[in-house]
Every structure is written in C-alpha cells, then in structure tokens.
Write a structure and sequence with these properties.
Length: 213
C-alpha cells in the first residue's frame, strides 16, 4: 500500500475512534511510524486529509446508491439498507462533526452541497423504483419529501446519538438502530403486499442492533 493510502486509512481509523478534532497530523504520523515531514509531503495539513477522505465517501455514495432495477425485492432493499449502514459506520466521524468540519472548509462545504443535491435525486429515484415494484404506495408528488426526511435522519442520527449520554459511544448496534429508523419512516407508505417483506427486514436489523459488539 502506498504511503498516501496508508495515511488516509490510518486517519480514518483515528478520526472514527477518537474524534476528528482530537487527532492531529502528529498523531497520525506517530501512529504510522513516519515523520511529520513525510506526511506533509503527501498532505499539506489535516484539512487536506479530511478532504481526501470525503472523496472516498463520495465514491462510495456513487456506487451504493444507484437505483437497481433487477433482483428479488428483499435483496434489493437489503442492499440499500446495508449501503446506509456502511456509509454511516465507515465515515462516522464525518457525521458526528459535520457542521464543524464544513464550517472550517468552505471549499469542502460547497462540494458537500453539490454531492447532497445529487444524492437527493438518487434517493428519489430509488423510492420511485420501490413504488414501481409495488413496495411503496405513495403519491409521486410526496417522494421528494420522503427522500428528504430519510436524508435528514441518516445525516444527523450519529450526531443526535452523541448528545444522548456523556461520552456516548457510536457502535455498530447504534448504527443499525438508525437503519431501523429508516424502515420506520417508510413503513406508513408500504403497499399491503410488501409489509411481510419489510417485517422480515426489520427483524433482521433488529437482531443486529441488539448485538453488543
């Protein structure tokens, strides 16, 4: 693995473990056993590292949230929900400190805005596909509002959880609880024939949310 990639991998792990504000470039260099100068050869500062990690986040969104036309309904829904889980878990530091990170980096904030606009369109397209497949029974005009509500829940679930207890830990079960909230949001719009499918998905993610590790 190239040094640049090692820096990004280590930074993401440290940001997720300790919180992005609590990690410096010196911490990252020490963790990797390299000199700060070696790190600065690849990145000018920590903001550059965060920006590069954001690029990985965007690439994941582009592959995970493309509407799928084929496949069993249960598998398709699970792939979307697993995509939600992976994104929230893998980039949890970003969700936990989103307003602060964006406020410090106007260029990143602008990129984030553009990405989220594109993501909103993709979520609407996914919901439209679920409607066409007979899973959702919802007026076409209401799809953007439902998509927006789902995006709000996913974006701020982690930061909300950090306010619920002193030294709150963001664990995998906590993220799966967020996935369950997504299912809860779409439940009122389910077509009758899809309710058993969603119930099976809820049971699946509820078991994952109850795990202690």
């Amino acid at each position: 693995m190239k040094t640049r990639d090692k820096i990004l991998k280590a930074s993401l792990a440290l940001f997720n473990e300790k919180g992005e504000r609590n990690v410096t470039t010196n911490h990252i260099a020490a963790h990797l056993g390299i000199s700060p100068g070696n790190l600065y050869y690849h990145f000018r500062n920590k903001e550059d590292i965060v920006h590069a990690i954001f690029g990985e986040y965007v690439r994941h969104l582009e592959t995970a949230f493309t509407p799928k036309e084929n496949g069993p309904t249960l598998d398709v829904l699970m792939s979307y929900l697993d995509g939600v889980f992976y994104t929230m878990w893998e980039f949890r530091f970003f969700y936990a400190s989103l307003p602060d990170i964006l406020a410090r980096n106007p260029a990143l904030h602008q990129e984030y805005f553009l990405v989220q606009t594109q993501l909103a369109d993709r979520v609407v397209a996914i919901l439209h596909t679920l409607k066409a497949e007979g899973i959702l029974a919802i007026d076409e005009a209401d799809l953007p509002d439902l998509a927006h509500t789902v995006k709000i829940m996913v974006t701020f679930w982690i930061s909300y959880q950090t306010t619920q207890a002193v030294d709150a830990a963001i664990t995998r079960p906590v993220i799966y609880q967020g996935v369950l909230k997504v299912l809860f949001l779409i439940r009122p719009y389910l077509a009758p024939d899809a309710r058993d499918t969603i119930a099976r998905l809820e049971d699946h993610y509820r078991r994952l949310a109850l795990r202690t590790r």
